[in-house]
Design brief:
Layout (H helix, E strand, L loop, with lengths): L15 H10 L3 E5 L3 H9 L4 E4 L3 H4 L11 H14 L4 E5 L9 H15 L3 E3 L7 H9 L4 E6 L5 H4 L9 H17 L3 E5 L3 H10 L4 E4 L7 E4 L1 H4 L17 H17 L11
Parallel strand pairs: 1-2, 1-8, 2-3, 3-4, 4-5, 5-6, 6-7, 7-8
Helix pairs in contact: 2-4, 4-5, 5-6, 8-9
């Protein structure tokens, strides 16, 4: 496994083919979410390989409790903004709830809109049984598709909670089988969310396509987090798998408070800050 790799060693734009090369070479894939051009530009400058325009925008940007209310139009809008802010990372867009579950044909049309209108490099779908045929159709038409197994947030009302998946033998075997099916259908990678580390390892070793973990242990081919979680901007959500690299909530809150105080006391703007 390569541990000395840096993005400067290979400044090429990241593609699905490059992700496959990284898996074969043992180079870990670094992924984060983004929803706007400003953050995607910073991620690009930081050497992030893959940006997911997640339907987590429903939680992070729109303030919903789940990802269910996110629409196709929301996804296209935010993906277009992300694409405008960066050049190197691979940009993948989440297909929102009910944009791909109705039929393979509808999934194909909606994925096509995301590719054409938002300049995405591919799409992500959750689950297996409902999406296998759609993945085949999209793959044949040249639309790269990433799968998502384990805890699938769009099915939260079915699961009833955000608990880890695959902890019992039957469910673990189903997730493993689903991963093989998604690969056979043509998925270029699979996100594994909130499953036991050993199951993540077993799936990663069995697949020729990369796995991207989020709460799936250290053995996946790459890792992804929601950027607001790892920056400490989110204060009411801190699952075990999130490592906070800083505490921007307090930093930003203090800056806003200092600004408000300066304005109210007439300390801002100074003469040198005026025209």
């Amino acid at each position: 496994m390569s541990t000395n790799y840096t993005p400067e060693m290979d400044p090429r734009k990241v593609t699905t083919h490059r992700l496959s090369e990284m898996k074969r070479s043992g180079i870990k894939i670094v992924a984060l979410t983004a929803y706007d051009a400003l953050i995607s530009k910073i991620l690009d400058e930081s050497g992030i390989d893959l940006i997911l325009v997640g339907d987590s925008l429903g939680n992070v940007v729109q303030g919903y409790e789940t990802t269910i209310p996110v629409t196709l139009e929301h996804t296209i809008y935010h993906t277009k903004a992300v694409a405008n802010g960066c050049s190197r990372p691979l940009i993948i867009a989440d297909m929102p709830f009910m944009s791909y579950q109705v039929s393979p044909e509808e999934a194909f049309r909606n994925a096509g809109r995301i590719m054409k209108e938002a300049n995405a490099a591919g799409v992500k779908v959750e689950g297996c049984k409902m999406v296998v045929e759609a993945i085949r159709q999209m793959n044949e038409a040249g639309i790269p598709v990433m799968g998502h197994l384990g805890l699938t947030p769009q099915s939260i009302h079915k699961f009833g909670s955000y608990r880890a998946r695959g902890k019992d033998v039957i469910e673990a075997e189903q997730i493993y089988s689903d991963a093989l099916q998604l690969q056979e259908a043509g998925a270029f990678a699979i996100v594994l969310e909130k499953i036991p580390a050993e199951l993540g390892k077993k799936i990663t070793e069995a697949l020729t396509i990369p796995t991207i973990g989020i709460g799936a242990g250290p053995y996946c081919d790459g890792q992804i987090l929601v950027y607001t979680d790892m920056l400490g901007l989110t204060v009411d959500f801190h699952p075990r798998f999130v490592r906070r690299y800083t505490n921007l909530h307090e930093t930003v809150k203090k800056a806003f408070s200092d600004y408000a105080e300066d304005v109210r006391k007439g300390k801002f703007p100074h003469e040198e800050e005026s025209y």
